[in-house]
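Proteins fold reproducibly. Look at a concrete instance:
___
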Amino acid sequence: MKDRYNYYKNILEGERLPAAIVDLDVLDKNIEDIVRRARGKKIRVASKSVRCRAVLRRILDSHPETFNGLMCFSAEEAADLAAHDFDNLLVAYPYIRELQLVRLFPKIKEGKEIILMGDLPEHFENYNRLAEKYGVKLKVCLDIDMSTSFPGIWFGVFRSSLRDLSQLKRVLNTIKECPHLELMGLMGYEAQIAGVCDSNPHTWFINPIIKLLKKLSISKIHSRRKAMVELCKREGFDLSLINGGGTGSIESTFEDESVNEIAVGSGFYSPILFDYYDSFHHQPAAFYAVEVTRKSQAGISTCAGGGYVASGSMGREKIPTPFLPTDVKLIENEMAGEVQTPVRHTSKLELGDPVFFRHGKAGELCERFNDLILVQNGQVTERARTYRGEGKCYL
């Protein structure tokens, strides 16, 4: 599109700003590209990166033969999605307290497939106790660690305790003693491949090191996940769900024959972080607009709001980035602020004009807005509630 700025500016004429926008034409293209990258493997959609029921439904309905349920980031979120007719819900993180889990049990009794995650014996003992108390059979999934260790370098994340076969065997023995549980899956998320960008212009000096570590890690990751799957089978567990990957690792995860589904989330919206990968590129489908409210001097305008910084380790890539007009830049000493964001520009901006920004991550943008303005073919088609707009705050 030659003049994207005026295209979106015209669509938002008369809208309240700040506003979050999802371009459905771009979203649909990203969906098609992701399905093509998966090359026939099932995809489980990571709800954390979407956080809007209308958009989740659009993704799932676009290719029902490929999209295989949701990976939820909260047990309470899974209960709410089940209440809105979503099914096949894998809760990607363990939860302990009864109050966080209790709303799931009526949905399971109704026949919804909801799968809980764990890696410690205590997780499964707790799930078994609650399953007995509420009279349900709980489906569970193992979360195994896919980090790799090199001399002086821990390349990965600190999450799961399951790093070797002896640790896995101990947990499997615990599950065998839990009559109210059914082990049906194993998840091995290679965060250091899927979630670490390797072409970051802000850290250009370590990009070659990251690429090398990724290359050296992949075979280790595949061998470990395969060995753990085989141990589960030898111990008598028939696993129907073997999950791996993320947007940033679809190609390498596909090569692991033990995996039967790949998790994907951020690629649908394609935030800033996903500009910094060499192996793939998707188009920005989600972004937000803030209003020019001041012009302090020639070439500097100030916008209302906009300081939506992404979570995780702090780096320049976590700061929202001006998107349109293409010449707009943040000011180093101020960056993006909670109540105002000054920008430099050479293009003509008037009071009331929108400036479009992209968030560092995908779903976190939805924590700042009650609605996503869905646009297609040059017009607003829907105002879809985010989780926040529905009054939900899960974490």
Notes: Residues 157 and 329 are 33 Å apart (CA to CA).
